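Supplementary Methods S3. Complex input for the flavin-adenine dinucleotide-bound model.
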Amino acid sequence: MRFSFLSIAREALRGNRGWTPHWRDAEPKAAYDAVIIGGGGHGLATAYYLAKNHGLTNIAVLEKSWIGSGNVGRNTTIVRSNYLLPGNIPLYELSMKLWEGLERDLNYNAMVSQRGVLNLCHTDAQRDAFARRGNAMRLHGVEAELLDRKAVQRMCPFLDFDNARFPIQGGLLQRRGGTVRHDAVAWGYARGASDRGVDIVQNCAVTGIRIANGVVEGVETTRGFIAAKKVAMAVAGSTSQVASMAGLRLPIESHVLQAFVSEGLKPLIPGVITFGAGHFYISQSDKGGLVFGGDIDGYNSYAQRGNLHVVEDVAEEAMGLMPMTGRLRMLRSWGGIMDMSMDGSPIIDRTPIDGLFLNAGWCYGGFKAIPGSGLAYAHLIAKGEPHPAATALRLDRFRTGHLIDEKGQGAQANLH
Ligand SMILES: Cc1cc2nc3c(=O)[nH]c(=O)nc-3n(C[C@H](O)[C@H](O)[C@H](O)COP(=O)(O)OP(=O)(O)OC[C@H]3O[C@@H](n4cnc5c(N)ncnc54)[C@H](O)[C@@H]3O)c2cc1C
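Predicted complex, serialized as structure tokens:
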């Protein structure tokens, strides 16, 4: 069923009784050309582009729970392509361009809102680093603006500019960045893939990967064995567990990241703002709630909930940036499991096992990458070679030393 002005008006007049389910809740078949493990953003987008761009429709997405139950429905919805390193910028900018046309492509309202992403700087050194990042972006054709203190003041007068420890000096602005309704992204891609014949199989956990003579044969699941010529992992925080089913040990650790939402306020925050003196970011949802988050909890975990020390830390940073948040009531907080790679950058690559593919290492920034990653992963699965925007995102970089270390923190997952 397509959305149009006419269909919405017609349904409004007849009490919205004519809408049909957005995707088929399929039963698994005995065999597919390809199966994708994980019905999160990356898995569903990959299925969509496999069907749309490569005509591969005898495929299934296997999701152990319901689609969108993982990080794609738990994130703070920020999209941007303000990266520094040449290994990363092309993929995130490809993604940004796809976000810009996504709703038309999917015929689905994903509430893409390019309200701008502003990174604040608080020291001379940080301003220099932002100037460097902005120049790197421009060299790759991505727009960036370095704002001085006065310009930031005009844009966000409610910030604490004279905080004695962290005075705001300026910021790096990407106007095309912003937010996208996260679960609508999962639903939109699921609908688009299902329309093209992809089976979306929920409540179907992969429990084993069958391999013979170094070639993948299919997957064992809670609903029986499913044969597949190609198997593509897209399980984010569960990557280590699923890869171990194929005997792979990856340079990835699982960590919890929490997010928070406040009571609703009148429109206050124009876009996404990040605090440069710690790790804190904030935006305002269309319902009025302030949506914010900070660092990962800092220890390995598969729990989808976090601990109090981060709640305290995030609240302190919120107060450091916007003292009036001390009077806000927090409504909800939750956690998701991050697939933290050792250099903080993702992997879209083949594995040493023929027919088995890997998409992982998104850390806490994989939502923005969903369209680009899905498109690039589909290209790799269909053609057997990396997409031009993802050539650096190789698994063997951790062996060869070609790391993509945006933060310059070294091989320590919990610092990225
Ligand atoms: C609190 C929080 C805030 C974030 N904020 C942002 C942000 O603002 N911007 C941004 O770019 N990124 C953000 N992220 C990161 C982003 O959400 C993730 O990087 C991204 O969603 C991960 O990819 P995914 O959507 O495919 O993962 P998921 O949605 O987690 O999908 C993986 C799926 O695999 C399934 N699965 C696991 N094991 C199996 C199995 N054995 N069999 C079958 N299925 C299995 C899971 O159930 C899950 O549904 C945030 C994350 C969190 C938790």
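The pocket of flavin-adenine dinucleotide is lined by residues 37-43, 62-65, 69-72, 74-78, 205-206, 234-238, 242, 257-259, 293, 336, 362, 364-368 (CB under 6 Å). The longest helix spans residues 89-106.
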